[in-house]
UniProtKB/TrEMBL annotation:
Organism name: Marinomonas profundi
Amino acids binding 8-oxo-dGTP: R21, H26, E32, F33, P34, G35, N117
Protein name: 8-oxo-dGTP diphosphatase
GO molecular function: 8-oxo-7,8-dihydrodeoxyguanosine triphosphate pyrophosphatase activity; 8-oxo-7,8-dihydroguanosine triphosphate pyrophosphatase activity; 8-oxo-dGDP phosphatase activity; 8-oxo-GDP phosphatase activity; metal ion binding
Broad enzyme group: hydrolase
Catalytic activity from the UniProt record: 8-oxo-GTP + H2O = 8-oxo-GMP + diphosphate + H(+); 8-oxo-dGTP + H2O = 8-oxo-dGMP + diphosphate + H(+)
Length: 128
């Protein structure tokens, strides 16, 4: 099963917004950049806007593709489209009851993310 996923690295100054995946979700208990699966025939950018509205309550206005990462979790193959999101209306929050946090890019090192995120976190820190 190959799934396309859109995820937003929401940035405000030097802070980045992260969320904790619920324990019953795939890769549960790990931190993530909010987002989710693209629906059939849905473009990645439309999925990104929809997911960030649903999960964080923001309307994104300025964003760009950062990196595409393909990863095989064994039970699931994902193609993750990570976007840097630098413009948005509204204040991001955990709309689905998930724990959320604003952290500095350097702080990302102290959080556990799914394996596919490793290169993303490293690239963000390298650029900070
Ligand atoms: N949102 C998000 N998903 C990630 C990240 N890294 C990563 O490997 N994933 C994987 O991408 C897949 C899809 O994400 P998701 O579970 O958020 O999808 P969704 O919001 O549509 O969830 P749902 O099916 O529970 O409604 C999951 O298998 C998840 O483990 C990340 O940083 N953010
Ligand atoms: Mg999601």
């Amino acid at each position: 099963m190959l799934v396309r996923v859109a995820a937003g690295i929401i940035l405000r100054g030097d802070a980045v917004f992260i969320a904790l995946r619920k324990s019953d979700q795939h890769q549960g208990g790990l931190w993530e950049f909010p987002g989710g699966k693209c629906e059939p025939l849905e473009s990645v950018e439309v999925a990104l806007a929809r997911e960030l509205k649903e999960e964080c309550g923001i309307a994104i206005t300025e964003y760009s593709l950062f990196k595409i990462i393909a990863h095989d979790y064994g039970d699931k193959q994902v193609e993750l489209y990570f976007y840097r999101v630098v413009g948005f209306d509204g204040d991001p929050l955990g709309k689905e009851g998930q724990e959320v946090r604003w952290v500095t890019v350097e702080d990302l090192m102290s959080y556990d993310f799914p394996a596919a995120n490793k290169v993303i976190v490293e690239a963000l820190i390298a650029q900070a």
